[in-house]
Design goal:
The protein has 8 helices and 15 strands. The strands form 6 sheets. Strands 1-14-13-2 form a 4-stranded antiparallel beta sheet. Helix 3 runs antiparallel to helix 4 and helix 4 packs across helix 8.
């Protein structure tokens, strides 16, 4: 099983997410300050990179849902970075820039996974393995089997890929008192996942000192079956859904059991042996992949999203892309587009909070992001929905994305990919 270094902490409030390690000290938690030093000064203030900024304090209670008013249940003061500087300590560059002064533009091209050169393909899978097997030097994660009791709260050191899994798990768990969450079934859906992919790309570049790394996309309209579910890519599976021993992913152990999604339990491991599961097409209600026609019809939808901003709305690009507005045709599907791909894979990918355990998740979502970009090209005047009580908590335009540091609003990513330092290679449907 995964080897974790665990530190028991007594904390005034329940919290979880990926946390910058300097912000998990007793001093940082007691003062509610997350302003780590960069080259000798908080937030790199002496270098002009940022400043430690104070935010309005909020009242906290026991058994809170940490995602509401993120991240102010935990910190009143955080780094606010200037110009092109970024990161929880302002020590990084914004997406799309590099160099010590973050004044050099940097653009990568995400290719379709079958178009990778052998060198690119080898590097991609080697870096995935490295991210899964090496402890992150920057982030810790908090777990608990009962968030109402301080004595059960534990910080855990984890690999970068496991931090990545946890982040999606946190965002996708249902909010307290509701079945909705901060990353799905609402207007933030494609933009939250855009930020999620960018986070992983940048962290891998930092970990490997290779700024050419990118997440390829999988164009699932090119085939009537999963053409990357083989040992040349993500591993073939047997009749039980287990990945072939010839694949590196047969050794990957999922974290954050899907049965641990209640508010009071935060990603507790039961120490049983488990594996990634995949049985493509095994569910008769989701035994096909979306087609190029499905994609084109989605891109033609005029409205980005519509009231009530949920999974029941019609004529919403976001909801059709996400896959809740299902075409009524001969396929008799229960889901479509993004959701259909998750369900088609019929295994680990089917459970929303923990789906990232299967690394196919990222190449799938890279293609979803490419579709979003093509829709934005076709609808240049589109804007993020204005703040409304009908938009779920955490998904309003001005809400900060959970659980990211430094703070970034949902509406920030409603711009073209080139703004964030990447573009997509052409791939005709």
């Amino acid at each position: 099983m995964l080897q974790f270094v665990m530190l028991l902490l007594l904390l005034p409030n329940s919290l979880d997410a990926h946390f910058p390690k300097p912000c998990t000290t007793d001093e940082a938690l007691n003062t509610k300050t997350c302003c780590p030093e960069w080259e000798g000064s908080p937030c790199g203030v002496r270098a002009g990179r940022g400043e430690c900024d104070s935010y309005n304090k909020i009242q906290t209670t026991d058994y809170i849902d940490y995602r509401e008013n993120w991240p102010f249940h935990f910190y009143d003061s955080l780094c606010r970075c200037h110009g092109n500087f970024d990161g929880f300590d302002c020590g990084l560059c914004k997406h799309g820039f590099k160099g010590h002064h973050c004044n050099i533009t940097h653009t990568t091209e995400r290719k379709e996974i079958h178009s990778l050169t052998e060198e690119e393909k080898t590097k991609f899978f080697n870096y995935l393995e490295y991210s899964k097997t090496n402890i992150s030097s920057k982030y810790s994660i908090l777990t608990s089997n009962d968030t109402s009791k301080e004595s059960t709260l534990k910080f855990i050191n984890a690999s970068l890929y496991d931090v990545y899994i946890w982040m999606h798990y946190y965002a996708a768990k249902p909010l307290k008192g509701t079945g909705r969450n901060v990353a799905h079934e609402g207007p933030a859906f494609p933009f939250w996942h855009r930020m999620f992919l960018l986070f992983f790309e940048r962290e891998v570049r930092e970990m490997t000192s290779d700024d050419s790394f990118f997440i390829p996309y999988w164009n699932w309209t090119k085939s009537d079956h999963c053409d990357i579910c083989n040992n040349d890519y993500f591993g073939e599976s047997d009749a039980t859904g287990l990945i072939s021993p010839q694949s590196q992913f047969s050794k990957w152990k999922p974290i954050c059991d899907k049965d641990n999604n209640s508010l009071g339990i935060i990603c507790i491991q039961d120490l049983k042996e488990n594996s990634i599961l995949r049985n493509p097409g095994g569910d008769p209600t989701s035994n096909t992949l979306p087609t190029s026609s499905d994609v084109q019809k989605t891109i033609e939808v005029l409205n980005y999203d519509v009231r009530e901003y949920n999974k029941s709305v019609k004529h919403s690009f976001r909801n059709i892309l996400e896959g809740y507005d299902v075409p009524q045709d001969f396929r008799q599907l229960n889901s479509a587009m993004h959701n259909l791909v998750h369900n088609y894979l019929n295994g680990t990918m089917c459970d929303v909070p923990t789906a990232v355990n299967d690394p196919i998740f990222m190449v799938h979502h890279s293609f979803v992001d490419k579709i979003l970009e093509e829709w934005m090209d076709a609808h240049p005047d589109a804007t993020y929905p204005e703040n409304s009580d009908t938009i779920p908590e955490g998904q309003k335009a001005d809400d900060f994305m959970v659980p990211f540091f430094p703070l970034v609003q949902n509406k920030y990513f409603m711009d073209h990919t080139i703004t964030f330092g990447y573009k997509y290679a052409d791939d005709d449907y």
